[in-house]
């Protein structure tokens, strides 16, 4: 739902993008490869993007702002649940585009049936970005010759090491799970060092999660020791007030678990042991790897990169 507060924060994020340095025609590197022969590497737009996104209408505003900022043409197809909101937002966005740029820079695709036809236009569309389920991304990839940038899952882990400050761990885990469970950077699996089982700190954390309404499912070890329902698969994204918990032997076991079952999105270690932290940061193969910070910090605005 687009409430007043959400619209205000959206407007602020768009102003932040507007205030960014223009990325286009920015020279990254200049090399004289031979006398009077100069090689320049520059940022340039990709071209026309087709972005198929989920039902959150704020996504339309963020995507459109980034496309305008980076000089790209855009075709948008949002979830049907937000169709009326998206129609209004599209009107607002296109109404402020100057005539010199052209109102048709951003198009809104209303019907799902149109996507199949658009996916055939590899001479017109330069990149397709599907944001949604694994199934959606796989379907799009199978239907087009256009390059597809698809990352479907957000199976994010928090690992609590045996040396963790448990007060800090409680704050990080609660933020990572409870702040916005539907987000792709929300925690889905909590890994805990086996020495912390049945400790006061972990019991307190589990009580706080229960108090917030988080349902916990256990891996084989946690299911036996904590008597919680057994999880069907470690490769599961809840996107709701639920998570998986499992005990591991050490930091290496946590790394192996994450690299096997994770989705290479965002993973975190909570520890006071610098050596364990460095090992985790270097060996976890994810886009964002954090030490003592909530997975919710994985965000363009937080990183100072706009939306």
Question: Regarding CATH, which class of the largest domain?
Answer: Alpha Beta
Shape: globular
Extended strand count = 12
- Give helix and strand order, one letter per element, not per position: HEEEHEHEHEHEHEHEHEHEHE
CATH superfamily of the largest domain: Aldehyde Dehydrogenase, Chain A, domain 2
| Structural class designation | alpha/beta
Average pLDDT number: 93
* Residues in helices, as a percent range: 25-40%
Note poorly predicted spans: none
The major pleated sheet works out as: 6 strands, parallel
First-residue to last-residue Cα separation? 19 Å
Q: DSSP helix count?
A: 10
Concise overview:
The protein is α/β, with parallel strands linked by helices and 307 residues long. 36% of the residues lie in helices and 21% in strands.
Descriptive tags:
21% strand; 2 domains; 36% helix; six-stranded parallel sheet; globular; Aldehyde Dehydrogenase, Chain A, domain 2; alpha/beta; 10 helices; four-stranded parallel sheet; 307 residues; Aldehyde Dehydrogenase, Chain A, domain 1
Blueprint of the fold:
Elements: H1 4-19, E1 27-34, E2 37-42, E3 48-52, H2 58-69, E4 73-77, H3 83-95, E5 106-108, H4 113-118, E6 127-130, H5 134-143, E7 156-160, H6 166-178, E8 187-193, H7 200-211, E9 215-218, H8 220-226, E10 242-248, H9 251-261, E11 266-270, H10 274-283, E12 288-291
Parallel strand pairs: 3-4, 3-6, 4-5, 7-8, 7-11, 8-10, 9-10, 11-12
Antiparallel strand pairs: 1-2
Helix pairs in contact: 1-2, 2-3, 6-7
């Amino acid at each position: 739902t687009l409430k007043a507060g959400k619209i205000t924060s959206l407007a602020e994020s768009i102003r932040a993008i507007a205030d960014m340095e223009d990325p286009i025609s920015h020279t990254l590197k200049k090399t004289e490869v031979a006398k009077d022969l100069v090689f320049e590497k520059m940022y340039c737009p990709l071209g026309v993007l087709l972005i198929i996104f989920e039902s959150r209408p704020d996504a339309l505003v963020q995507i459109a702002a980034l496309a305008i900022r980076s000089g790209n043409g855009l075709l948008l197809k949002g979830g049907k649940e937000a169709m009326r909101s998206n129609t209004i937002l599209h009107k607002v966005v296109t109404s402020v585009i100057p005539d010199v740029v052209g109102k048709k820079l951003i198009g809104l695709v209303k019907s799902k049936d149109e996507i199949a036809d658009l996916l055939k236009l590899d001479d017109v569309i330069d990149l397709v970005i599907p944001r949604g389920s694994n199934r959606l991304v796989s379907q799009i990839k199978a239907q087009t010759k256009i390059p597809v940038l698809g990352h479907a899952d957000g199976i994010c882990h928090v690992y609590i090491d045996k040396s963790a400050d448990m007060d800090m761990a409680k704050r990080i885990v609660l933020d990572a799970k409870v702040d916005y469970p539907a987000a792709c950077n929300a925690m889905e699996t909590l890994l805990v060092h086996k020495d912390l089982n049945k400790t006061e700190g972990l019991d307190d954390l589990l009580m706080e999660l229960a108090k917030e309404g988080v349902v916990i499912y256990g891996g084989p070890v946690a299911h036996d020791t904590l008597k919680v329902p057994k999880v069907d698969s470690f490769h599961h994204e809840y996107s709701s007030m639920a998570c998986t918990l499992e005990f591991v032997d050490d930091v290496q076991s946590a790394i192996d678990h994450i690299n096997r079952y994770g989705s290479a999105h965002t993973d975190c270690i909570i520890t006071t042991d610098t050596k364990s932290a460095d090992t985790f940061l270097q060996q976890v193969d994810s886009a964002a790897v954090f030490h003592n910070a909530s997975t919710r910090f994985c965000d363009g605005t937080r990183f100072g990169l706009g939306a």
